[in-house]
Amino acid sequence: MAKKNEAEIAETSGGFNFPNFFQGTREELEKVVWPSRKQLISESAAVLLMVTLSASLIYLVDGLFGWVAKQVF
Questions:
Q1: Which residue of 3, 43, 48, 59 has the fewest C-beta atoms within 10 A of its own C-beta?
Q2: Range of the domain at 66
């Protein structure tokens, strides 16, 4: 088996290290591809439209079932 170097051992054997955590977080955030303003607005509008349509459909179906329940009972 190959020996691990001291940096790998120190990284894996210690407790939680705030500076390493924040450095790793920053490195990962630099890899993120952020959307453009136009893309953000259009996709947000699409999400809001779908949520509104879904909520309206659920409201109408609930009203229909409520009306049917009143007719039956």
A1: 3
A2: 35-73
